[in-house]
Amino acid sequence: MSPEEIRKTAEHKMLQSVEALKNSLTKVRTGRPNPALLDTVHVEYYGSMLPLSQVANLTLLDARTIGVAPWEKGMGAKIEKAIRESDLGLNPSSQGDLIRVPMPPMTEERRKELTKVVRGEGEAAKIAVRNLRRDANESVKKLVKEKLASEDDDRRSQEDIQKLTDRMIVEVDRLVASKEQDIMAV
């Protein structure tokens, strides 16, 4: 493997870490309802556990309410129970075939807790990126030791990998700051 291939592999893995951060941040609740908030809820459907989005249609009814429309009539009670028992702290209510999931307004204290959670997620993503930088640098050093790459290649690839790492960390910081701003917006 050449130093360039090592850098490309590291870049790919770092991008995956940033994507994982984006996915985990969508699950953190902000003041506004978002159907993606219910992605973690699983419902029993004929003996197997399926994500809520695979057994019902999720929509925004208004600024504070998510609507869940089950595709089968008998699923309403199971969906309602699954949402209630999830760790999201939501209390759904049925209206005929439609299940309304009102989003309670968040307290200032809860908002501050969630910003801490977001910062923790961001820090975990930064650690993952830095670990990938370390692994890539070690791989290049190993190539130099085995005489498959020159000292100049080592120095050049370390600079490239560091620039890449810095770029990814700036992106993580941007995502975290954006999510904190969403959470603190009333």
CATH C-level label of the largest domain: Mainly Alpha
Arithmetic mean of pLDDT: 88
Query: What's the gyration radius in Å?
Result: 22 Å
Catalogue the unreliable spans: none
Shape: elongated
> Within the CATH hierarchy, at the fold level, what is the topology of the largest domain?
Topoisomerase I, Chain A, domain 4
- The strand count comes to 6
Strands across the major sheet, in which order?
A: 3-4-6-5
* Helix-strand pattern: HEEEEHEEHH
Q: Helix share of residues?
A: 55-70%
Number of helices: 4
Strand content: 15-25%
How many separate structural domains?
Answer: 2
Largest sheet: 4 strands, antiparallel
Could you characterize the architecture of this molecule?
- It is found in: Cytoplasm.
- InterPro entries: Ribosome_recyc_fac (IPR002661), Ribosome_recyc_fac_dom (IPR023584), RRF_sf (IPR036191).
- This is Ribosome-recycling factor.
- Keywords: Cytoplasm, Protein biosynthesis.
- Helix content is 57%, strand content 16%.
- It has helices at residues 3-26, 76-85, 108-145, 151-184; strands at 42-45, 48-51, 56-62, 65-70, 93-95, 98-102.
- A hairpin with a 2-residue loop joins strand 1 (42-45) and strand 2 (48-51).
- The strands form two sheets. It has a four-stranded antiparallel beta sheet, covered by helices on one side. The chain has a two-stranded antiparallel sheet with strand order 1-2.
- Helix 1 packs antiparallel against helix 3 and helix 3 runs antiparallel to helix 4.
- The mean pLDDT is 88.
- It has four helices and six strands.
- With 186 residues, the chain is of the alpha+beta class.
- It folds into two domains: 3-27 and 107-184, Orthogonal Bundle (Topoisomerase I, Chain A, domain 4), CATH 1.10.132; 35-102, Gyrase A, domain 2 (2-Layer Sandwich).
